[in-house]
Amino acid sequence: MTALAAAPAPPDGAGLLASARIVAVADGRGGTALPVLDGGGPFALRRLRSPGAEARVCLVGAMSAPLGGDALTLTAEVEDGAVVHFSTTAATIALPGRTGAPATYVVYIRVGEGAELRWLPEPLISARGGELRMTTRIELAPTARLVFREEQILGRAGEPPGRLTARLTVRRGGRPLYDQELSYGPGVPGWDGGAVLGGHRAVGQLLVVDPAFAAAPVAPRVLAPAAVVAPLAGPAAVVSAVAPDGLQLRTVLETGLLGMEISR
Predict the structure, then answer these.
(1) Among candidates 66, 69, 115, which has minimal Cα distance to 92?
(2) Which among 14, 66, 133, 170 is least surrounded, fewest beta carbons within 10 Å?
(3) Could you tell me whether strands 17-26 and 32-39 are parallel, antiparallel, or unpaired per DSSP bridges?
(4) What does this protein do (predicted)?
(5) Which residues fall within 8 angstroms of residue 16, CB to CB, at 6 or more apart?
(6) Each residue of 51-78: pLDDT tens digit?
(7) Which helix (H) or strand (E) holds 260?
């Protein structure tokens, strides 16, 4: 599979440069070991108790980040046959920094043959005055399984959002599977119009990749007035939704995931 790229430098050299790395491997006894669980700055990684083959990893925020000018990188490598469930203890809040420079947050994920990753963090909140460029790049082996959730809340209660650009790129077996970039907030034309958010302040997607979908593709359906399940050109499907708030968004995404898991 494609090698993971190096972390970027801070946008203007004035912010925090921090990274974290997770490596999971099958332990040969039906479980998953974590030989590398390392993080600095705002990243504190913890292993949680979990039954069966799955290893549970939780990211604990050790400090406020990302702030303007920060460059953060999180890498997860799930080797052949390993099973990992990733979560976070709280939402990530993108805040303004001292210089007004944008922050960057890059997530690199690689999932090997017969491996499975459930990536289920809490939402990203784009706070007033902040600017964040978030990039997620995922490389999957042909027999890998993935559940990936991404939720964005535009502004805290009673405030307008900052500027947020988020790109998700997924490759399976070295070939493109999914590539989407969305931008919101000040300076982005039409982001709050009827063709994009229509006044909603919570947006998200839940991507499921499973080789079983090749024989039994997911059927498209409407989940809510602003939420749909759509099959992709591959053994995958995505739930896309906008909602008035984070609670309603989470409910819709979980409903879509449950429907796909029942159909397998």
Answers:
(1) 66
(2) 14
(3) antiparallel
(4) Required for maturation of urease via the functional incorporation of the urease nickel metallocenter.
(5) 10, 41, 42, 65, 66, 67, 69, 70, 71, 72
(6) 788 999 999 977 788 999 999 999 999 9
(7) helix 246-263
Quickly tell me which residue has 């799955």 as its tokens: 54
> By C-alpha distance, which of 34, 46, 153, 148 is closest to 89?
46
Burial profile 17-34: b = 16 or more Cβ within 10 angstroms, e = fewer: bbbbbbbbbbeeeeebbb
Whole-angstrom Cα distance, residue 216 to residue 264?
8
Distance CA(249)–CA(153), nearest Å, equals 10
Residues 211, 46, 137, 111, Cα dihedral to 10°:
-30
Q: Tell if the pTM clears 0.90, that is, is over it.
A: yes
Quick one: residue 140, left, alpha or beta (phi over 0 = left, psi -120 to 50 = alpha)?
beta
The Cα–Cα gap between 137 and 106 comes to 8
